[in-house]
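Subject: Interface between my chains keeps coming out wrong

I've been trying for a while to get a sensible model of this assembly. When I model each chain on its own everything looks fine, but I need the whole thing in one frame so I can look at the contacts. Pasting all components below, labels as-is. Any help appreciated, I'm running out of ideas.
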Amino acid sequence: MNAFFALVQREVRLATRVGGGGGMAVFFFLIVLSIVPFGIGPDLNLLTRIAPGMLWVALLLSALLTLDRLFQADQEDGTLDLLVLAPQPLELTVLAKAVSHWLTTGLPLVIAAPILGLMLNLPLDGMLPLMGAMLIGSPALSLLGAVGAALSVGVRRGGLLISLLVLPFYVPVLIFGVSASRAALVAVPGDLGGQSLALLGAVSLASLVVGPVGGAAALRVAVK
Amino acid sequence: MAWSIHTYANPTRFMNFSAIVLPYVWALAGAGIGIGLYLSFFVAPPDYQQGDSVRIMFVHVPSAWLSQFGYGIMVVSSIVALIFRHPLADVAAKSAAPIGAVFTFLALVAGGLWGKPMWGTYWVWDARTTSTLVLLFIYLGYMALWAMIEDPNRAARVAAVLAIVGAVNLPIIRFSVDWWNTLHQPASVFRLDGPTIHSSLLWPLFVVALGFTFFFIGVLMVRMRAEILRRKVRTLQMQQAAA
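Reply #2:
Try treating it as a single job with all components included. I did that and got this:
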């Protein structure tokens, strides 16, 4: 477990110091969402309606942006070989990588989301459900993304490949996430908000299994 | 020698076996598709509500079945490839992917052409359409992975992991899309004309589906043979380069 925390600490430190590019994802998130009103016009009512969906789509894209360096940088300088040879299970290593990806990408984006929500005219009572749903759903993005990153280690132009591999798997997160965020805005019959939040949690928990196991299997192939 | 899964997992034996079997597979495919299409175009009655456009079903439904059949083959071969390291299993998985992708595409196109007269639009974000589209994307991602890794042995194992992860996720995606669709639009709008299909339409459908399946198997064998030969050429070239 010590190795796990040491690895998380190392990743977070690398991301936040010079050259780590830790703030890139948040900046990208901001830019993408600022582009939206230019594309569809500044109609505030329309923006309110599409705000939860746009925020979620931008969240997926921003999470993808930093995934290609997850294992690639370690592979280039040889750290990955050491991590694979290390005594702790490789699944735990992948989990540590996913956790640190979430800490440096998912969490800042969730914190930034309400501010961007304001720009898209998202009503104030919609903020908390949105943040809650993003908090529950975004770990799934990092965990599933880790599988994609592990699959494309050592591939030239791996970043492009990751988006092809991972985006289809993000569909459930997007569906349940948007539905949970929207429930507070639109009156829907029944308790759909709670239901979709529970399903979103289920997807995150399933990714907690699929991510480390699948990622470790892919890494073992890549390093051999 | 006792017969086991290993008997045909030997590439040389597979080459001999497939050379003998292929003509029969083609004959069955030709007969199935020929007779099936004749039945579906000339014998099957037009639907009482949909008229002649119901005949698109005879291409659409078998393609949709085979799109999932193809993924099934990929997953089973990938599991065998990862666990037993059979040289043929990853050849089978790699060869099945483009065929499955083409049938998925065909199912979507035929569905679109059927949708235009029936629903009034080529594309609907209906649960089944959407999950078939996601399946197509997963096929394409799988093929892209194969195309981007040079060493076939490494590509085989990485792609196998992707196929299996995909198999775990497909039911989740399928469920989420179903849930999403029923949330937004009642199924009654996009329901086909009746829950049951009359047997006069069902029989031609099965014959076409059988023909399509044999066609799938035939193309799969040809692609596997080509892949085995390609790897032989690669090995020879590498030996030559090393000498």
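Reply #3:
Confirming on my end. The helical segments of chain B are 11-43, 57-84, 87-119, 127-148, 152-184, 199-242.
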